[in-house]
Design brief:
Elements lengths: L2 H12 L5 H114 L2 H36 L7 E4 H19 L6 E5 L6 E4 L1 H25 L7 E8 L3 E8 L29 H11 L3 E7 L3 E9 L2
């Protein structure tokens, strides 16, 4: 019994003036109060213990959540770093597709530069001879030929410079800035580079190339590095598709790749089609998913079409595919006019 109640209990027992019956009632009530008090004390004590336990558990939970949050942040950071590496790997893989094509494209203007330089050197010797003879009229005629040669050297030098700059631009990270770009020139450039790139790897490969570029398009606002990667990926895939089919049916099959552009009332349409084996129906819904590839292990990252999809979406456009087994595939890109 609690001390204060105990003193009251003893006081009632010692009170002589109280009848025994009243003492009994009071003592009974006092015992009842003491019991209730003990129950309340027990409950209060238990509540305090629960509070302390809850506080400890809450502190441990907060600490655990903090650890998990840190782990998630690290995992996210690692994932972003891996994503950047994979995108870079895909970019370098696409650039690797172009290496041989770049060498071929640069060789042509370099050959012109070398040839015109040699001819110009001979013309200078002839002009000096004519000047020694005092025939200024002939010397002027030779000088005019030299001028034309220099213009051709300058033209082909700029052509080689443009190819190098284009590839450097392709390999760098995109600035994200749209700029007026001749879409037809961009498509034609990557079409030839992709073709010669595959030809350099496989001397026996050949394909009919058809282009149908709409001259009404002019220059449109796009991010050239990004859209170039889309075109390169689709065109390279088309060449690989017809190459694979030609290996399966040599002599019975004429590989064909077509690239076209069209200005419509709604925007710009780009089509890249081939007459390869087509995409199996069970894969058509998956081809734009990251890391999905039908190529053999080591021949594709599975990011080409996924990145192409993201790039087209970033240009507020759409990309879709139609394919028929055994007959070929066509990728269609629709871009807005503005």
């Amino acid at each position: 019994m609690e001390n204060k109640l105990k003193r009251i209990y003893e006081f009632i027992l010692a009170a002589r003036e109280l009848p025994e019956e009243e003492k009994a009632v009071l003592l009974k009530s006092l015992k009842s109060v003491d019991k209730e008090f003990q129950i309340l004390s027990f409950k209060l004590d238990r509540t305090e213990k629960v509070k302390r336990t809850t506080a400890i558990l809450l502190e441990e939970t907060i600490e655990e959540l903090e650890q998990k949050r840190t782990a998630v942040e690290k995992a996210l950071s690692d994932l972003k770093a891996t994503q950047k590496q994979l995108i870079h790997a895909e970019k370098m893989a696409s650039l690797g597709e172009l290496t041989a094509g770049i060498a071929h494209e640069i060789q042509n203007p370099l050959n012109f530069v070398n040839n015109f330089s040699e001819v110009s050197n001979e013309l200078i010797e002839e002009m000096c001879e004519e000047l020694d003879k005092g025939d200024t009229s002939e010397a002027r005629a030779i000088a005019q030929d030299l001028r034309q040669n220099l213009e051709k050297i300058n033209h082909h030098g700029k052509r080689a410079d443009g190819i190098v700059k284009g590839m450097l631009q392709h390999s760098r990270s995109s600035s994200g800035e749209k700029e007026p770009t001749d879409l037809n020139v961009l498509a034609d450039e990557y079409l030839r580079l992709a073709y010669h790139g595959l030809r350099a790897k496989n001397k026996n490969f050949n394909a009919s190339i058809k282009t149908d570029f709409d001259d009404k398009i002019g220059k449109i606002e796009i991010i050239p590095q990004d859209m170039g990667r889309v075109l390169l990926n689709l065109i390279a895939n088309a060449f690989h598709a017809v190459d694979e089919k030609s290996r399966q049916a040599p002599g019975e099959y004429e590989p064909r790749v077509t690239v076209s552009t069209e200005k419509t009332g709604k925007g710009i349409t780009i089509r890249v089609s081939d007459n390869g084996n087509g995409i199996p129906e069970k894969y058509r819904d998956k081809i734009f998913q990251p890391f999905f590839t039908t190529k053999p292990t080591g021949q594709g990252t599975g990011l080409g079409l996924s990145l192409s999809y993201d790039i087209v979406k970033a240009h507020e456009g759409e990309i879709k595919v139609t394919s028929e087994a055994g007959k070929g595939t066509e990728f269609i890109i629709n871009l807005p006019l503005s």
